[in-house]
């Protein structure tokens, strides 16, 4: 089954977040770079949370109403 572009974007965000976390754990990453990476990571996390909330809302619309 082909992946939707949203799923690919979500996966790409996850991969970027993993790369950022790896760099943040590296003792050779400067404090300035660490701050930039941290800021980027927080933005990615917000995007991923928005994606998940949207998916949750779509799933809730598919549920039959409670009787």
Oligomeric state as shown: single chain
Number of extended strands: 0
Structural class: mainly alpha
| Main beta-sheet strand count, sense and barrel state | none
- The general outline is elongated
Q: Could you tell me the radius of gyration in angstroms? A: 17 Å
How far apart the termini lie comes to 34 Å
Q: What is the beta-strand fraction?
A: under 5%
Element-by-element helix/strand order: HH
What are the segments in which pLDDT stays under 50 over at least 5 consecutive residues? none
Mean pLDDT, to the nearest integer, reads 91
Separate helix tally: 2
Task: Tell me roughly what share of residues is in helical segments.
Answer: over 70%
Short description:
With 67 residues, this protein is mostly helical. The chain contains 2 helices and no strands.
List the SSEs and their pairings.
Blueprint: H1 5-25, H2 31-62
Helix pairs in contact: 1-2
Task: Report what the structure shows.
There is one protein chain. With 67 residues, this protein is mainly alpha-helical. It is 79% helix and 0% strand. It has a domain of 29 residues. The chain starts with a helix and ends in a 5-residue tail after the last helix. The mean pLDDT is 91.
């Amino acid at each position: 089954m082909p992946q939707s572009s949203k799923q690919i974007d979500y996966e790409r965000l996850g991969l970027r977040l993993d790369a950022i976390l790896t760099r943040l754990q590296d003792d050779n990453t400067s404090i300035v770079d660490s701050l930039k990476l941290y800021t980027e990571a927080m933005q990615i996390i917000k995007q991923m949370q928005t994606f998940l909330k949207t998916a949750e809302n779509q799933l809730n619309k598919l549920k039959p109403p409670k009787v």
